[in-house]
Amino acid sequence: MGHTFFATISRMKYIERWALMRNSRPENLSEHAMEVAMIAHALCTIGNVRYGHTLDAEKAALIGIYHDATEIITGDMPTPVKYHNEIIRHAYKEIEREAECALLQRLPEDLRPAYEQIFFQTDDPEERYMRRLVKAADKLSALVKCIEEERAGNTEFLKARLSTENMLEKMTAEMPEVRDFMEEFLPSYGKTLDELS
Fold first, then answer.
1. Contact, 177 vs 46, CB < 8 A?
2. SS percent in the chain: helix, strand, coil, step 5
3. How big is the chain by its Cα radius of gyration, in Å?
4. 60 near 43, Cβ under 8 Å?
5. Distance (Å, rounded) from C-alpha 188 to C-alpha 117?
6. Are 40 and 59 within 8 A, CB to CB?
7. What residue numbers bound the domain in which 78 lies?
8. How far does the chain reach from its first CA to its final CA, in angstroms?
9. How far, in Å, CA of 138 to CA of 146, rounded?
10. Are the C-beta atoms of 64 and 137 separated by less than 8 Å?
11. CA–CA distances in Å: residue 103 to residues 17, 67, 96, 160
12. Residues contacting 27, CB < 8 A, separation 6+
């Protein structure tokens, strides 16, 4: 019997994000994961170059690729539900952990340790910080989606944009990389190709 890990992961393209929102253009989990990977890599690079960190930007990109892979099993739980209260948040974390283990079981046993390093956090302070930057990249990707929807004339995402901007503003106090990205790169999002030239 073949191993099903990568065939399962490839199904991220069928998981639609923002299911409770009217979208001018649907976004699937594969698209989101790629964007999070790019932004996470950029945040770690900024941290290394400007703030003296020794973050593994390539590992951050990998974590970004797989950060929502459990949604293949769990589905995309809307953020307001997922973080409604501590009981739900804790229960959902347990469900995610079970889903991560189920996904890893689809790999050959000798490859699992390499992927466990992507899915599971260690106690290393630099890795913890890097994973926080991946979470920030996830929020930045959500903000990009809100900006693009707003640019397309869809006001459905206005509240989501304000909420996401508030979360990111709090993150900038502890992670200057996020502030730098928002100041230097975020203004270009939502522009047309001609405007980017």
1. yes
2. 70, 0, 25
3. 17
4. yes
5. 34
6. no
7. 5-196
8. 51
9. 13
10. yes
11. 20, 12, 10, 30
12. 16, 17, 18, 145
Q: What CA–CA distance (Å, rounded) separates 194 from 186?
A: 17
Give the SS3 label for residue 100: helix
Angle between helix 158-174 and 125-151 (nearest 10): 150
The pTM of the full predicted model, rounded to 2 decimals, is 0.92
- Secondary structure of 67-112 as H, E, C letters: CCCCHHHHCCCCHHHHCCCHHHHHHHHHHHHHHHHHHHCCCCCCCH
> Which is nearest to 97 in space by CA: 113, 76, 121, 114?
121
SS3 label, residue 85 = coil
At 187, give phi and psi (nearest 5°). Answer: -60, -20
CA distances from 133 to 143, 177, 178 (A): 15, 8, 8
**At 142, which CATH number?**
1.10.3210.10
Domain count, the chain: 1
Pair of tokens at residue 40 = 């996470």
pLDDT tens for the chain, residues 1 to 197: 689 999 999 999 999 999 888 999 999 999 999 999 999 999 999 999 999 999 999 999 999 999 999 999 987 766 666 666 888 888 878 888 999 999 999 999 999 999 999 999 989 999 999 999 999 999 999 999 999 999 999 999 999 999 999 999 999 999 999 999 999 999 998 888 888 88
Looking at residue 13, its amino acid is K
